[in-house]
Amino acid sequence: MSKISCKVLVVDDEEDILVAGRLLLKQHFETVITTSDPYKIPALLQDHSFDVVLLDMNYSTGATSSKEGFHWLKQILQLSPKTTVILMTAYGDIELAVRALKEGASDFVLKPWQNEKLVAILKSACQNRSAQATGKRSAEKAERDNTAFHYDGFIGVSPAMQRVYQTIEKVAATEANVLILGENGTGKEVAARAIHRKSKRAKQVFEIVDLGAVSATLFESELFGHARGAFTDAKEERAGRLEAASGGTLFLDEIGNLSLALQAKLLTVLQSRQVVRLGTNKPRPIDIRLICATNMPLYEMVREGTFRQDLLYRINTVEIHLPPLRERREDIKLLAGHFLKVYRQKYDRPELQLNSETLRRLNEYHWPGNIRELDHAMERAVILCDGNQLHPDDFYFAPSEGEHHKQQALETIAESDYTLEALEKMMVQKALVKHSGNITHAAKELGITRTALYRRIEKHGL
Fold first, then answer.
1. Among 3.40.50.150, 3.30.70.260, 3.30.365.10, 3.40.50.300, what is the CATH number of 161-321?
2. Residue ranges of the Response regulatory domain (predicted)?
3. Quick one: pLDDT at residue 61?
4. C-alpha span between 186 and 323 (Å, rounded)
């Protein structure tokens, strides 16, 4: 059996796992190194330049939270950004897997693993890594694995996204405050992480605060910290999120949700670069790079008096506008292919393909939930579809406002249009709109086959 030229590191605190992994993987890969001590990871990465790291999530006795695994995932990606990390744990769940993928892991493996599946996942990771390292970028392969279209967490080649990439490159090297604007699901956190990774603070902490999830009563305690006894449940002194981010980057998500009173408190801290913990009078200096994001119209809110103009000026030295998916349709095929690859692997459906009609429908849909909606739609379709091809009726396409108006217009037809061809076109349109583009349901209502309906769609240019 010929071995793949690939360097694999296995990190786990259980010796049995390391022995089993070494025996299995050495049959398939040229270099396999194991360690039970995660603190050796930085030195090993420096000495060997691993292609893939198979990383356990828990190292302390009895630990099940996976905090250690996420810590070492972050360290690996900072020290060796091109290394593929695959996480493994005996305590997996869907939320943990989703978080792992969001934070940069390539895949997620449950212990005890299935030997063939583990080898297949590692082979795929090694092959992708090899393609990146050797610069093989044929158009066909790029469309298949999307590696040529990645920009630090983003996928896309559209002019709108190229402008975003250029802005990130320019602003990341500075200490300027950045405001990221965009609809839900456009990738504001991805942009913030990209700025941090490309900045001088890349090796320091990246602290995220979702201001939409912080209640007004806990705002000061959460952000500024508190002393012991400052309030009923304050049983010990605790640093706030701003202190925790000192030296690194603070990402304030959903900043448009803050009330005017809380905006004033935040502005005071940002101006003075000092925090005072609740229950104390001692100011503590902070050194943060500030990135904020929101999907709300801040300039309109300033005019309406619901957002402070001085705070807006403080946080938006540079603005980055993330375009909605409907304004970057060139990227839909690439994104769909990327998500299909992820979920084919996750749900063990390697045979699944997108047919041309499905791609057409995906490209025409208005995607109100943007990339997040496309991600969820692709996962749902992979789970529920039958056969080896994803069809349009495997997806749910919510009608847009324009389609509602179109449906109302179809209720009437001019007397001059009473031809068989016009009536046929009208009935096909009505059926498609009624069933939100679901070909199977529309064909059933019209009393024809799906193939016949596809022919009529093409005939009438629908």
1. 3.40.50.300
2. 7-126
3. 54
4. 7
Q: What angle do CA 346, 161, 103 make, to 5 degrees?
A: 35
Report which of residues 405 and 58 the model is more confident about: 58
Give the CB-side neighbour count of residue 274, counting CA atoms within 13 A. 6
Angle at alpha carbon of residue 50, lines to 193 and 205, rounded to 5°: 25
What are the contacts of 255-262 at 24+ separation with CB within 8 A? 255/211, 255/292, 255/293, 255/294, 255/315, 256/294, 256/295, 256/296, 256/298, 256/301, 256/307, 257/211, 257/212, 257/294, 257/296, 258/211, 259/216, 260/306, 260/307, 260/308, 261/216, 262/216, 262/219
Look at residue 82 and tell me whether its pLDDT is greater than 50.
yes
Contact by Cβ (8 Å): 69, 81: no
- Please report which confidence band the pLDDT of residue 150 belongs to, taking 50, 70 and 90 as the band edges: confident
| Helices first, then strands: H and E counts in the chain | 20, 18
Delimit the CATH 1.10.8.60 region(s) of the chain: 328-385
Assess contact for 108 and 96: CB atoms under 8 A.
yes
Q: What 3-state DSSP class applies to 141?
A: helix
The pLDDT tens digits for 287-300 are 999 999 999 999 99
> For residue 364, what are its two tokens?
């025409």
Q: What is the DSSP string of 281-306?
A: --EEE---EEEEEESS-HHHHHHHTS
pLDDT tens digit sequence for 189-247: 999 999 999 999 999 999 999 998 888 888 988 899 888 877 767 778 888 899 999 99
Q: Are 110 and 88 in contact (CB under 8 A)?
A: yes
What CA–CA distance (Å, rounded) separates 198 from 168?
8
Class of domain 399-462 as given by CATH: mainly alpha
Pairing of strands 225-226, 238-239: antiparallel
pTM exceeds 0.85 for this model:
no
Yes or no: is domain 328-385 CATH 3.30.1020.10?
no
Tell me the pLDDT tens digit for each residue of 153-165.
899 999 999 999 9
